[in-house]
Amino acid sequence: MRAFALSEDQVEYAARVRSVAVESLVPLARAGEDGRINRPLLHAMGELGLLRDLYGGRPGEPPRDAAAMQLCLLRETIAAVSPEAETALALQGLGSYPILQSGSAATVERWIPGVVAGDVVAAFALTEPGAGSDAAALSLRAEPDGDGWRLSGAKLWISNAPDADVYTVFARTSDTGARGVTAFAVAGDAPGLSGERLDMISPHPIGRLAFDGVRVERADVLGEVDAGFRVAMRTLDLFRPSVGAFTVGMAQAALDATVAHVKSREVHGGPLAAQQSVAHALATMATDLEAARLLVYAAASAYDAGADRSTVSRSAAMAKLFATEAAGRIVDQCVQLHGARALQRGHLLEHLYRDVRAPRIYEGASEVQRTIIARELLKERTSS
Question: What parts of the sequence cross the membrane (predicted)?
Answer without folding.
Answer: none
